[in-house]
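Give me structure tokens for this 866-residue protein.
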Amino acid sequence: MVRNAYIIFFFLSSFGFAQNLEEDIYVATETFLNKTNNASLKLLCEQESTFKKQVKSKNEQLALVFLQCHKGYYLEQYSQLKEAISTFENALDRFKINELSKLSDFDIIENCLKPLGNLYTKTGDYTNAVNTIKRYIHFAKKSKNLKHQIGGLINLITLYKTLGEHKTVIKLCDDALKLKQLKPTQKEKFLNAKIFSLVILEQFDNAKIANNNPHILSKFNILNNSYLIELQKGNYQEAQIAHNKAKKILHAKNHLSSRYLAKFYLEEVQLNKLLNHLDDAKNSANLALKMLLPNISSIDLLNKNNLYAENTFIDIFDLYATLQEDPKLALNYYDLSFYVSRLLENNWTSQENKISNQTANRIRSEKCIDIIFNAYQNTKNDTLLFTAFKYAELNKSGILKERFIKKTLLHKHPNDSLLLKEANLLKEQEKITNLLINEQLGKSQASIITALSSDLNTISIKLKILKETINKKYPELEDRIFLVDEIQNKLLEENAVLVEYFYGKKNIYQFIINNEGMHLNKINLDASTKKHITDFIHLFDAASIINNDIDKFTTAAFTLYNILELTKTATFKNAIIIPDGILNFIPFEALLTSKTNTTNFSKMPFVVKKQHIVYNTSTAFYLKKEVKNKANNLLGIFPVFENTKNSLTYSINEANAIKEEMHSDLFLKEKATKRAFIKNSSNYSILHLSTHANSGNISTPANIEFYGDTMFLNELYSLNLNTDLVVLSACETGIGKLYKGEGAMSIARGFQYAGAQNVLFSLWQINDLSTSQIMQSFYKNYSDNQSAYISNHQSKLDYLKNEAVSNIKKSPYYWSAFVYYGELTKPTNSSKLIYALIGLFILLIILLLLLKTKRAYGKNTTGIPS
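Here you go.
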């Protein structure tokens, strides 16, 4: 960025006789640039606030953009990253809305888009970073500005390195190195990035060959790359020799950013730790911290309020934690990492971005639980168990929790303009994301994709501004802290036990809570345990697998029951299971409570015969108070797909059963369109979709079929439902790309995000006939008891007892696919019984009236007056 008086003079002279306000803005900027410090920055901020209220003409708007770009640059230098991002975003929005590119050749890419893209990367806002960088690369190509194309490519590669997409990095670097117009410094950046990714992918020979390029790489980079190669190979002594040589060159360099130096010292911490030089590691950690906080000489003097949204802090505190022998100190340092992580997340608006950033938090949570578990073994202090439990809950379905809190708040304040505006922006964000995915799948023109990315950036900016205002107005938006007593009281009321799993890298932690207390079990996640879990899940890949080897199934089902420590929960009538990781794909009801030699499925000791199993995404959702839909009606969607290879013949039987049992409106065949569903879905308390669904793949999100159209996950996110129950009578509605903490990105999750309170869905490709039979039984029971969890449980028992169903078809493949996530609704008196009693009561009244009339007539048969 050019920062001198000549540029300001150029702007003033370019537009002739500028208005006084325009001139005042440029003068204020020049005054600041001549003396940059905290006092001059404060004055500039005050002036900017005044100018914002006064600017009207395009020339004045451009002058303000100029001021904001310079202000943003210096805010970044002072490590005020959040304020810098906000300033650059405001400048970009102002430039776009006022179409200032038509007025001036002001370099918005160099002065705004590039630093903004870098700031997004620094603060972990990767969705906005990708959109911003790709956006200005597109602009640069359009205007044939090679300098900005190459600059954008360097920044994009840096981002992909951060995201761990190293194959993409190598390909982009190879393509870039073929360009003839590259400057030596640019060549070095591309080659250096390529070497880094080769090392991470353990392609050491290729990395060494690439690093042997003294005519491209500086001596420092050659040494630093050698350090990285030896480190990854486990040659720590050789790595230290290379690192120390690189360090000597580094100390002689000037103008290196504090962030770069902090990361360099972090490498030193890691190396010293591996060499068991713990004192040296602590000294290097202090140096790394000092680079980011010059006024802090030691971590012991750190105040949490000194920290800001910078992801390097997280690396520093995580390493500090691993150097501690005192568990309390280690947990304190991890808590500082979580604190910075929350600061970063406050600036994110995209749920995809939030989800992708949860992996590191999950790894940290596991380390905290492990520390507490070991401390508990020594102390048997029960308060430690609930502390461990809070770490397990910390990253459980965080996005869904946030969404539920916002929907609940809007339900309380339906006319709040801020909440309504935010809800509409979030809806629009998901719609545009869905359009963007569709365009990318269709390989549309880059200009269309860039325009959509630009729209997403604009929405993100608006959401951030709104979020700050809403959070101040409604402090209850923070995650509610619940107590173990609260959980136990509800479990006692519902005669239930809660089993929450935390699926880590080394262990599975199991929390068992009942009305008497809490227990924590550690299940070693070795190769054998992993195999038992995955093998059991794969038994349901096809209908024939279980029937071809029933003994294998019974052995696997009982073994896994024991591995998952479920014997400790068997005495409770109701069990709330909160699965995690790939445990999300286990049908717990199909596990066996004891050994068996029988091949008769109806006689096997399935969990479903002993307990009602209800699932949930987190304990916070188990405790949440449902917002009931006052309506008691059902919308059914039945595309049927007749005369196609995907025909659902027995879907009609489902529809007829629902019509007989429930007050419902059913859309069949060509009427079962996506448009009809979107238009009507918010008006019903129950939604039933009998159709096809797909779990998606790497490039395509999960989706569900309507007549003549498909709905992808992000479009489903954009709906606003107020539904008590969603029944997904379709294949794989609970399957999708699995993210640690947030679970599967499935159609079922899409409905939960859209506002469904309770969801019944499938875990694999289900059989059309058996599904129809189970659903008919489900609605017959539901019309009697109005309790989804009891009806789901009973429908499976009815299916196993049904003598018309052959033993082969009683395999758990046919009946255990459907899992219920939601509340334990108490059964009501049978509506049919009520109607029968009312009818009987009316009949009794009629009979009494007839009897009374008959007696009166009998007394007066002579016709003589008395």
